[in-house]
Structure formats: C-alpha cells, structure tokens
Amino acid sequence: MPRHPDAGAVSIALYRVDDRLIHGQVVVGWGKRLNARFLVLVDDAVRASAWEQELYRMGVPPDMEVIFASTEEAARRLEEWERDPRVGMLVAGDVETIVRLCADSRRVPRVNIGGLHERPGRRARLRYVYLSEAEAAALKALAARGVEVTAQDVPTARPVPLGEFA
Amino acid sequence: MSEPVRGVVVSHAGVAEALLAAVASITGVDDALVPVSNEGCDTGALTERLARAIGGRPAVLFVDLPGGSCLTTAIRVAKGHADVAVVTGVNLAMLVDFVFHRDLAPPAAARRAAEAGCRAIRTPAP
C-alpha cells in the first residue's frame, strides 16, 4: 500500500506524546491513516519489563512491528529508524521524555501532543491535554528551537497550535 | 454460599454504561455489573477507577477491545489476584449470560461468558 500523504517523506511520520502509550487512537486512528508499519515506544519502564512489553504488544496488529526503546536507545537509533523505508510512529508517555529525545537527537521536526490527562499540578488546556506550568514551559522551549508542537488526538481533528493551549 | 462474582465492564467512551442499561432492560438484573469508562483517564487514573469498581471482591473484568488502555490496565489490576479474571470483546450476549451465572468462580465465569459471547457472533443469511 502506498504512503498516505499525511505520512510525508520521512520514515517516522508521527512523534507523539500520549500517556496511554499504545492504544486505539495510536494504532487504529493514526496507524491506519499513515499506513504505519512500525511503532517505537519510548519508555524506560516498559523497556525494562518483558511483561509490560507483552501487554502493549497485544494492542498492535500483527503487520505492525513494535520496537521498545529507552530514551537513550531512542536518541541513538533515531537516524536508523528515519532511514527505514517503512512508515513509522514514535510514542513517548510524557513531555520530559520527548524533550530529552529532542535534545539528544536534534532530528525531531514536530511533536504531536495526543493525550496528557489530569494529574495533581496540571491544569486543563484542552479536553485531552492537561499540562503543568513546567511542562508548558518545556514545550514552549522546544518550539523556540524550531520544533513544531501541536495538539491533535486523532487525525481527523484540527491540529491545535501550541500557542492556543500553552 | 460464597459471594456472587461482580462483573466490571471496562470500555472506551460510554459503551460500558450503554451495555449495562441494555442488560438491565433485558434481564431485570441491575446489581451485577459496574461500568468503568476510560474517558479522561491516564493509566493511573483508570487503574484507580477499576480498583474502586472491583472493591476487593471476586470479579470478572469485561473489556471492549483486545488491546489498548482498557485491556492493559485490566490485566495489570488482575495480575496476582486469582479471584479476578479478564475477558475481551465484551458484547451484550456474554453479559446477559454472565448475570445468571455469578455463582461460578471468576475464571470459570469468564470462560463461560466468553463462550456465550462467541456463540452470539453469526453471519445469518439475509
């Protein structure tokens, strides 16, 4: 199947921050839309647990490869994944992880905030985005370095520019 | 007699609430099932909702999809608890059967419900 136009020219077509990690919106919503064939889950805790990995693998169709990586491994292997002829997606569970990844690799052109839910210290920015002041500041710093940051839970929704929610 | 098994329906959006309403309207049983939606939850919040719904009792967790946050959370919550079982692909037929067989132990109740749910999936000729 050809690439969907939304996938663009790079291998990793979606860099997403989502505290549910692998779930329906990611695999079905974005995965189908982009025709993604691999998914990188960047999470130090999941990387360290074979049991957690098995759990997340259950939500992924058999034709999509799942790669579990620590933040450090992801920064090191990003160039390799970008050269992959298949379309891929990368998901991190929090702002801190994606900021570290961007700082280490300098290869992330845009970040999709897909779902960060209510926790102590955070306030509502959008229906599906809650941020602490520190997280909002970190995203603004990322944008100031040239990374395009938008919020968009599913592909059919409007991408909300950072300036409208942080 | 041992405590009847509680059914907890874990779903995206309002699926669980809708299934409970349908089960009650068909069977008249309205105290066997508890709905849990993942709406607005990260994994931690969903875990708390689920634990509250189970309430430390024997339970079968009925999950809508065979993957995703509802299932991963349900399995995490059930891990290490022999009296909590998980079934995916919840449908109305399995819940209707379940509410009349709550005397079974959770693993047996889960297996029975899954079989009832599978039997309900057919492709009748028009």
Keywords:
A: 166 residues; alpha/beta; 6 helices; 9 strands; 35% helix; globular; B: 126 residues; four-stranded parallel beta sheet
Tell me what the structure shows.
- The complex is a heterodimer of chains A (166) and B (126).
- Chain A has 166 residues and is α/β, with parallel strands linked by helices.
- Helices cover 35% and strands 25% of the residues of chain A.
- Chain A has helices spanning 24-34, 44-47, 50-57, 71-82, 95-105, 133-144, and strands at residues 12-18, 38-42, 65-69, 88-92, 110-115, 123-126, 129-131, 148-151, 160-161.
- In chain A, the strands form two sheets. A seven-stranded mixed sheet of chain A has the order 3-2-4-1-5-8-9, sandwiched between helices. In chain A, strands 6-7 form a two-stranded antiparallel sheet.
- In chain A, strand 8 (148-151) and strand 9 form a beta hairpin.
- In chain A, helix 5 packs parallel to helix 6 (133-144).
- The longest helix of chain A has 12 residues, at 71-82.
- Chain A is globular.
- With 126 residues, chain B is of the alpha/beta class.
- Chain B is built from five helices and four strands; from the N terminus they run βαβαβαβαα.
- Chain B has helices at 15-27, 43-54, 69-78, 92-98, 106-119, and strands spanning 6-11, 33-37, 59-63, 84-88.
- In chain B, strands 2-1-3-4 form a four-stranded parallel sheet, sandwiched between helices.
- In chain B, helix 3 (69-78) links the parallel strand 3 and strand 4 (84-88).
- In chain B, helix 2 packs across helix 3 and helix 4 crosses helix 5.
- Chain B is globular.
- The relative contact order of chain B is 0.20.
- The chains are: A alpha/beta (166), B alpha/beta (126).
- The interface between A and B is medium-sized, with 18 and 17 residues.
